Amino acid sequence: MRLDIAGVCVELDKTPIVDGADLVTQPGEFVALVGPNGSGKSTLLRTVYRALRPRTGSVLIGGDDSGS
Questions:
Q1: In this structure, are residues 23 and 32 in contact, taking their beta carbons and an 8 Å threshold?
Q2: What is the pTM of this model?
Q3: DSSP character string of 14-62
Q4: Among the four residues 31, 36, 38, 58, which has the most C-beta atoms within 10 Å?
Q5: What is the Rg, in whole angstroms, of the alpha carbon atoms belonging to the chain?
Q6: Which residues pair with 28 in a beta bridge?
Q7: Tens of pLDDT along 12-50?
Q8: CA torsion 56→12→34→63, rounded to 10°?
Q9: How far is CA 29 from CA 1, 2, 17, 34, in A?
Q10: DSSP state of 13
Q11: In 3D, which of 26, 25, 11 has the Cα closest to residue 56?
């Protein structure tokens, strides 16, 4: 399934955690999200599965807006 993340910015308690994230994956691709502790990996994933809403940007899963 295709995943499109475009210009996603996420804030928690008015603190920027993710700023301007962009990613496009194609069906069948394996993708790793790597980075140091506290770099926003889990926050970005929570945004993809709609536990968090981005301040700006969009998340499309299979071409459908995930509610961002």
A1: no
A2: 0.87
A3: TEEEEEEEEEEE-TT--------TTSSHHHHHHHHTTSS--SEEEEEET
A4: 58
A5: 12
A6: none
A7: 999 999 999 999 999 999 999 999 999 999 999 999 999
A8: -30
A9: 9, 9, 26, 16
A10: T
A11: 11
d(Cα 3, Cα 7) in Å, to the nearest integer?
13
Burial class (CB in 10 A: 0-12, 13-18, 19+), 3: middle
Residue whose tokens read 């981005």: 54
Burial 7-19 (b: 16+ CB within 10 A, else e): ebebbeeeeebbe
Phi/psi zone of residue 46: left (φ > 0), alpha (ψ -120 to 50 degrees), beta? alpha
